[in-house]
Structure formats: C-alpha cells, structure tokens
Amino acid sequence: xxPTVYATWVPSPQHRYGDHPESPARLRGLADLREAHDxxxxxxxxxxxxxxxxxAHHPNYVAYLQQIVRHGPAVIDYAPTYVTPTSFDDARxxxxxxxxxxxxxxQNESARGFAWIRxxxxxxTRTQAMGFCLFNNIAIAAHEALARxxxxxxxxxxxxxxxxxxxxxxxxxxxxGFVSTHQEDIYPGTGDFDEAEHARGRILNxxxxxxxxxxxxxxxxxxxxxxxxxxWQPALILVSxxxxxxxxxxxxxxxxSARGFAxxxxxxxxxxxAWARGRIVFALEGGYDPLAVAASGRAVWAVLxxxxxxxxxxxxxxxxxxxxxxxxxxxxxxxHLG
Length: 338
Ligand SMILES: [Zn+2]
Description:
Number of strands: 10
Number of helices: 9
Largest sheet: 8 strands, parallel
Order of helices and strands: EEHHEEHEHEHEEHEHEHH
Oligomer: single chain
Bound molecules: zinc ion
Helix content: 25-40%
C-alpha cells in the first residue's frame, strides 16, 4: 500500500504586487495537481488561530501586521516584502494550510503531506516580516507539533536562501533541530557555518557555492544531513521546500534540477521512514521561475506518491557544479559527525 498523501492548496490570488516575483503565477504550473485522481487527500486550509501563530511570533508583530495590511498595497521591508489588504488573512491561511496537513499526518499512520502555500514563511522572524515572508509557516507548524508532545523535530530547509526566520524562532529551542542549505553570500546575508555557536549539532548552516548541482547537494545530504538525522532521531520531519535552488531561478545562482530536488525528497522520506514513523510535511517556500517550480514540484510530488518521476522538460543545469568536499568536511567536524 502506498502511503496516503495529504495536501492543501493556498495560492492567495489577491496577495500580489505589480511585477513582484513572489506572485500567484508561481503556482500556476501546478494547479492541475488538484484535478488528478492520484489518491491525494486535499484538505481545506482554515485561517490559523491567532493563539497558534503567537507561539512563533510576538503578539505585537501579529497586531502590527493586522493593522498595516489595511494601508496596503504597501512595501513593509527592504527585500521588498509587500502586503495587500488581504495579506493578513492570506498569511493566516498559508499557516493554516500547513497546520491542516500536519494534523492529518499526525493522526494517520503511513501519511505524509505537502502544503502548496503562499506567501512563504522562512524569513519571517519572531518579530518581523522579511524576504517576502509574513508568518513563518513551518515554525508555526513545528510549535504546534511541540504543543502536542512531538519531539524532537527536524526542520530541513533546502530553499536557496538561509532560513533565518526559522533559525531565529528556534534559536534556544532544544527540541527543534534546524538544517539549512543555501547559496552563500546572497539574501539575507546570514547562515554562515559557525554562526549558531551555542547550538552545535542542533542548528546546521550549510552555505554552498554558486552553481552547486544535483551531485553536490546529494553529497551534502548523504554525508552531513544523513548522519545528523541518525543522531537527532526526529519524531517528525518538516521541510521548508523552496524551489529557488533550481538552476533556472532568476533570483539565485544554484544548480539543482527537478530530478535533483526529487533525489533530496527521496532521502528525506527515507529518513522519515527510518526515524519518524514516516511522518513528514513539506511546505512551499520560494521558487521564482514558474516552469522550474512546476517541474520540481511535480518531481517531489511523484516521490511522495512513490510513483516514477515524470519527464523533466528543463533537464539538468548547463554547467557542472563546484566540488563541495571541503564544505562537507568542515561541517562534519564542526558538528562532530565523525
Ligand atoms: Zn528563497
């Protein structure tokens, strides 16, 4: 029996701002997933309760966001992050989408899920919106799982940018391990190997050089994240699934392909099966080339459904990526992974 896949769809069509890359068009190439009779159980995405959001965000920030959207459309930070009059509810519904999938995955054996949501979340800190992100969806879900006694939790963030907001929210939370792979020296400028000095072995930042490709990523996952998972033994894996590490993404310079994302998802699912009774929830973060998001999203979707990978219309990166052996060695030493 293949596992049951739970999903939500929150495209937030009114959360848009001129030609800003974080737009509803990002999800357009995946809309037909909802029409496929592939056994997916599609869940309604309710507005996340305020008291659930405030486990991850300061109440003053939540109140500020509720108030500022009334003045939208407006830009509220330099990324630029924008709001429209619907954005407060859109952000609540995005968080609610991840919570709905989480709830289904925790209540059912052999279940996994993907929340197709926007706005994204992983740059939003406890007290501020950043990097196109309003509420930190994955952090809100992790807090909900903690409140239900699920621990320890592993959050893996393979978005091309550092998950600074998630790191911020769990900076002192010993029950949550956080791993972020990201392109070095791009927005938001954080995520250096040794910046979370107090949390060696729990917060793993893995900055990668431009053009790191499928092979480089697979090595990092096999030689750093795999051994870490084995030690961390998570009861739940949450994934900040950004597809902007695809080689076509207009905002970054990494080298993953749709097949490469599928290979990472395959490993994550294996680790969830090994340590977390199969419990894994993916939530969409970035990804700004709609064709790359569609190809990568479909590939990961096939992995979750344990079906053969679809054709990849975009293929691998045109250039081979750099060697990442030195990064792997450094990270393994830093976090005492042998
Ligand atoms: Zn990103």
